[in-house]
Design a protein that fits this description.
Elements (H helix, E strand, L loop, with lengths): L6 E2 L4 E4 L8 E5 L2 H6 L2 H10 L8 E9 L6 E7 L6 E3 H4 L6 E10 H4 L3 H11 L14 H17 L5 H5 L17 H7 L12 E10 L2 H7 L5 E8 L2 H18 L14 E3 L3 H35 L6 E7 L1 E10 L2 E10 L2 E2 L18 E4 L7 E5 L4 H5 L2 E2 L9 H7 L2 H10 L3 E4 L2 H6 L8 H10 L4 E13 L1
Parallel strand pairs: 3-4, 18-19
Antiparallel strand pairs: 1-2, 2-3, 4-5, 5-13, 6-10, 7-9, 7-11, 8-9, 8-19, 12-13, 14-17, 15-16, 16-19
Helix pairs in contact: 5-11, 6-11, 8-10, 10-11
């Protein structure tokens, strides 16, 4: 990275001073090694976001930040509607409400020892995965609207899970303010047969073992012990979310001149929050969030059903479900007073600290679970929000390892079959419909997730609770 535009302001904080059209400073949280590995494009995108109307405090990038469409992936920014603040489709991303759902199972490694192949094969056949994959849930137009309005709550009402699941889901499983009428017919059609599917790319279902506990108080609250088997599901709103992003990116570009918006990057397309386009996007985006919450709820139900035969003693309960591609209305202190802000997190995880009113009663004394996915061959982590992250990043943390190279470059460096064979020797069983997809997601294509998480903790953004390693990974 070109160091001319950044100045070190601490062991893990780098400042991009306000210059030119920037309205606020830029801040990147990273170690020396992580900042050195970031593309110059990250700085450019942090600066571009800092120039958007109504932004408050700073434009942030998390330790796993890398180049994205408009906003850097790992970008966080908050906008004040009373100061002409904007909402950006590029600031949410095309996979609206992509997130992680982690499940407690009541199992330990000895319960599944020697059965990895059987478990992997069963899950591979019961969990629809892959680009364009379809599931067993088939929706008509009315049913699709019901999903977009009801989220995971709709899924539970249809028999996909239990009411208790909703308490441990972000927004209690249903995002208020969703407006299915603002979602195009094309987007709805794309989703009608994709509910309860993983999709492709970096999405997965993973069987994991807890190998280290760092915070015993939080671990106890979350139901985590060393040796536990957990299941993590990483996916989002599938074709519907992507189509919403595509549709509104075009609308925002077309209407920008009438709102006097000069876009430094077409992919940074935005509209004033209080404008007709801004309100329309908010309704559609919130519907996309509900689609993702329902999707992960259905997938959890499929996992439960599979384990009824795979491991009858399993007691699968939801630890937590949290998204990392959203814009949420939240209250934060900025400019010396508490304000109602629209917080964009693109490849960044919400990290509420202890006492926050939006948390389940069981977690209020320790903070929100922050679920960080790794790669097929490395660790994942569970963190918790803390008291300092609100002031540092609007209660935001990293979301994963963060790519270091494109998928195309990864396929030139690795063969999917070779990656799978190597991981099997390391004790990780991979099942995927696409060996090309395995190559694209090779562990070497990502940053060191342990360093990303350590920096996240050292910077004060969240606190480590537990480290998990993959045993089985089902991918598209």
């Amino acid at each position: 990275m070109n160091r001319k535009l950044i100045k070190r302001r601490g062991d893990y904080k780098w400042l991009i001073e306000r210059t030119g059209k920037m309205l606020v400073d830029g801040v990147i949280y990273a170690s020396e090694d992580l900042i050195g590995g970031m593309d110059d494009k990250v700085v450019e995108q942090v600066r571009n976001v800092a120039s958007l109307p109504g932004i408050v405090k700073a434009s942030y990038a998390m330790p796993d930040a890398h180049w994205g469409y408009g906003f850097a992936i790992g970008g966080v920014a908050a906008f004040d509607p009373e100061k002409g603040g904007v909402i950006s489709a590029g600031g949410v991303g095309f996979d609206i409400s992509c997130g992680v759902r982690t499940l407690n199972t009541g199992l330990v490694r000895s319960d599944i020892e020697g059965r990895a192949a059987e478990i992997a094969e069963t899950l591979f056949h019961r969990i629809p995965a892959g680009g364009g994959s379809t599931g067993t849930v088939h929706l008509g137009r009315t049913g699709t609207d019901d999903v977009l309005a009801g989220g995971a709550k709709w899924a539970v009402e249809q028999g996909y899970g239990i009411a208790e699941d909703l308490r441990f889901t972000e927004e209690n499983g249903c995002m208020k303010g969703a407006d299915p009428a603002q979602v195009s017919d094309h987007a709805k059609t794309r989703q009608q047969n994709q509910m309860g599917t993983l999709g492709s790319g970096n999405h997965y279902l993973e069987i994991q073992e807890v190998v280290e506990v760092f915070d015993t108080k939080a671990a106890q609250a979350f139901g985590i012990k060393q040796g536990d088997i957990k299941i993590s599901i990483h996916c989002g709103s599938r074709g519907l979310g992507h189509q919403i992003g595509t549709d509104y990116l075009k609308r925002m570009v077309q209407t920008a001149p009438q709102y006097g918006l000069e876009l430094p990057d077409r992919e940074l397309a935005c509209s004033p929050i209080n404008s007709p386009v801004g309100q329309s996007y908010l309704g559609a985006m919130r519907a996309g969030i509900n689609c993702a919450l329902a999707n992960r709820q259905i997938l959890m139900h499929l996992v439960r059903r599979a384990f009824e035969t795979l491991a009858p003693k399993a007691n699968i309960k939801l630890l937590y479900d949290v998204s990392h591609n959203t814009c949420k209305t939240e209250e934060h202190v900025a400019g010396g007073k508490r304000r109602r802000l629209f917080v964009h997190r693109k490849g960044a995880t919400r990290a509420y600290g202890p006492g926050h009113g939006g948390l389940p009663a069981e977690y209020k004394h320790v903070g929100q679970p922050v679920l960080i996915g790794g790669t097929m061959g490395t660790a994942s982590y569970i963190l918790t929000g803390n008291e300092t992250s609100e002031a540092l990043s609007f209660s935001s943390a990293c979301h994963g390892a963060g790519r270091t190279m494109s998928r195309r470059k990864a396929t030139k460096l690795w063969s999917g079959r070779d990656v799978a064979k190597k991981l099997k020797l390391q004790g990780v069983l991979i099942r995927s419909k696409s060996m090309r997809g395995v190559a694209e997601e090779a562990p070497g294509a990502y940053k060191d997730v342990s360093e990303v998480v350590n920096v996240t903790e050292q910077a004060g953004l969240a606190t480590k609770v537990a480290k998990l390693i993959p045993l089985i990974c089902v991918k598209g």
